[in-house]
């Protein structure tokens, strides 16, 4: 029987800004996600429309705090009031780990507060205690697309050097509070995404930087996040000696569209740019590819004395990543089909299936990604996001039959096992996105469903919020129970 390694951490993943709700309860402040409007009239493949944020958009959001229809992240899946039920369902599946995030604005409502919000700290105490009851390890992301909105309005987000200090204070607070409850931590979710959607990741709005090179603004903010990540690793290790701290990147995997040397070279360039962000957090220094890009594009990053040293001294312990799809690269894209992916547009691979949202399905690409990352870093890996967004529907029998999701997962799990057994990859665990239906990041929809658990809610916020186990719930339960896929053959 082919089994996954003993102690393999099976589980699921969510983010506070997409699942929690309760956005005005327990002393929580505004986060950037509370101000992110859904554009129901826009094509789901038009990422520019969905990610475009202006100061006027923020003013509009602030003027309508009662609106949870156009701002669906404000209600999420209401984990805030359903967390006991949801964690019990995770335990029923057999979860060993649950990847979640702490909403910074629950702990420090404005980001720059003198004292933390006790009600927010208590909420996560109760969540961690509930997880402990079922022996589920929390894997906590410190910052997952939810900087406090006040830091955007009064400090220009992560472009401000001051925000590093605010983040340090927040990290020290949560590490001290939860030092006996949380062992596994991630610093920034998809730290590279600040280049693709700077508002949700870094609290950056282009119209607030008149006369500045906005690309340079984004890279400066990212530098501040790199320094903050190293400091967070330092703090975590000091307060929780047996803790493990990882980085988290968007694993975009590209193939040359053809064997033309020009296509292969362009693909190599693209992949080097993808790895630049994890390189920085694993090796503790900027890779030559990023330094060359800065030089060739006249981008100047301002560093403070000691930045390079702290980044070098406190690299991450493991590398985690999201993997959903792969794409192709061509030196000349003229006449080629382009399809969306994880907040990108890229050349379509004619050999792959495509989801309802245009994302190409490529299980072998996950194996390739695991091998490439492990060969590059020689550090443990963790797949912390992977899954299929689909338009699940309740059948006449009151159930959700999702064989397409089971098929997707089966193929990806097989490739993970192949990477472990045949390629020698050290893989810590797997947390699928998302274990329960929540508001999708890219288009702010719940109708793009990923979970094993169906939430009775539509895109306009109508529904009972009842939880319903899908067929994939029971299938995943058996995978975890057997630590293997072989049960299907018995």
TrEMBL record:
Family affiliation: Belongs to the glycosyl hydrolase 1 family.
PROSITE patterns membership: GLYCOSYL_HYDROL_F1_1, GLYCOSYL_HYDROL_F1_2
Domain of life: Bacteria
Keyword Hydrolase among record annotations: yes
Record lineage: Bacteria, Bacillati, Bacillota, Erysipelotrichia, Erysipelotrichales
Keywords: Glycosidase, Hydrolase
UniProt protein name: Beta-glucosidase
One Gene Ontology MF term: beta-glucosidase activity
GO biological process: carbohydrate catabolic process
Residues annotated as the enzyme's active site: 385 (nucleophile)
Organism the protein comes from: Holdemania filiformis
GO cellular component term of the entry, any: cytosol
């Amino acid at each position: 029987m082919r089994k996954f390694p003993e102690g393999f951490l099976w589980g699921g993943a969510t983010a506070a800004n997409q699942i929690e709700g309760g956005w005005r309860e327990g002393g929580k402040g505004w986060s950037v996600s509370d101000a992110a409007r859904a554009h129901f009239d826009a094509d789901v493949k038009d990422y520019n429309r969905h990610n475009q944020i202006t100061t006027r958009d923020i003013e509009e959001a602030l003027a309508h705090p009662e609106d949870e229809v156009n701002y669906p992240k404000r209600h999420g899946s209401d984990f805030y009031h359903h967390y006991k039920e949801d964690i019990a369902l995770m335990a029923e599946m057999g979860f060993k780990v649950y990847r979640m995030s702490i909403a910074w604005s629950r702990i420090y409502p404005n980001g720059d507060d003198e004292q933390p919000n006790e009600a927010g700290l208590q909420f996560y105490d109760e969540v961690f205690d509930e997880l402990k009851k079922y022996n589920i390890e929390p894997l906590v992301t410190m910052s997952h697309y939810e900087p406090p909105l006040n830091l955007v309005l009064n400090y220009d987000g992560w472009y401000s050097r001051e925000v590093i200090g605010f983040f340090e204070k927040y990290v020290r607070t949560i590490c001290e509070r939860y030092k006996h409850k949380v062992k596994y931590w991630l610093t920034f979710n998809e730290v590279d995404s600040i280049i693709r959607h700077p508002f949700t990741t870094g609290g950056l709005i282009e119209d607030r930087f008149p006369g500045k090179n906005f690309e340079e603004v984004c890279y400066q903010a990212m530098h501040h996040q790199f320094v903050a990540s190293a400091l967070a690793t330092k703090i975590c290790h000091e307060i929780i000696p047996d803790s493990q701290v990882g980085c988290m990147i968007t694993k975009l995997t590209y193939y040359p569209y053809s064997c033309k040397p020009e296509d292969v070279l362009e693909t190599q360039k693209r992949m080097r740019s993808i790895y630049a962000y994890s390189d920085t957090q694993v090796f503790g220094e900027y890779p030559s590819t990023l330094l060359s890009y800065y030089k060739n594009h006249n981008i100047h990053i301002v560093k403070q004395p000691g930045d390079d040293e702290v980044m070098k001294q406190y690299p991450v312990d493991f590398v985690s990543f999201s993997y959903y799809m792969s794409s192709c690269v061509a030196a000349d894209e003229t006449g080629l089909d382009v399809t969306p992916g994880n907040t990108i547009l890229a050349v379509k691979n004619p050999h792959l299936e495509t989801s309802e949202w245009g994302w190409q399905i490529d299980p072998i690409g996950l194996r390739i990604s695991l091998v490439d990352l492990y060969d590059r870093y020689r550090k443990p890996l963790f797949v912390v996001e992977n899954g299929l967004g689909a338009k699940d529907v309740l059948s006449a029998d009151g159930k959700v039959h999702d064989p397409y999701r089971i098929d997707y997962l089966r193929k990806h799990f097989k490739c993970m096992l192949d990477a472990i057994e045949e390629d020698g990859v050290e893989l810590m665990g797997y947390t699928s996105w998302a274990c329960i239906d929540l508001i999708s990041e890219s288009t702010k929809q719940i109708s793009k469903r990923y979970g094993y658990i169906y939430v009775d809610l539509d895109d306009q916020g109508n529904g009972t919020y009842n939880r319903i186990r899908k067929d994939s719930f029971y299938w995943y339960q058996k995978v975890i129970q057997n630590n293997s896929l072989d049960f299907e053959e018995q």
